From TrEMBL:
It comes from the Bacteria. Keywords: Plasmid. It comes from Persicobacter psychrovividus. This is Transposase IS66 family protein. Residues 52-88 form the Transposase IS66 C-terminal domain. InterPro entries: IS66_C (IPR039552), Transposase-related (IPR052344), Transposase_IS66_central (IPR004291). Residues 3-45 form the Transposase IS66 central domain.
Length: 92
């Protein structure tokens, strides 16, 4: 068991902690706690939806402000069957 525990010392790519992943997931945990106070269940669903959109923007290298501006400027003229074109991953 000790041999497996010191693998990180023998391989410079392995880290003895998980701080990187904890830092990436911390906003999710904080958001989850804050969503208890959004007002109502439907407000929480709206907040969750936008949180998901902004996380998708980040994953796809899309500026969330520019994406949201684009959506608000184009959503009325976009046919219902073409709304997927407005998703953040479609703009990248």
């Amino acid at each position: 068991m000790f041999d497996r525990m010191i693998n990180y010392a023998q391989d410079g790519l392995l880290l003895p902690d998980n701080n990187l992943i904890e830092n990436q997931t911390r906003p999710i945990a904080i958001g989850r706690k804050n969503y208890m106070f959004v007002g109502s269940e439907s407000d929480g669903q709206w907040a969750e939806m936008f949180y998901s959109f902004f996380a998708t923007c980040k994953l796809n290298g899309v500026n969330p402000t520019q994406w949201l501006t684009h959506v608000l400027e184009n959503i009325r003229s976009t046919p219902k069957d073409k709304l997927e074109r407005l998703l953040p991953q479609k703009n990248s």
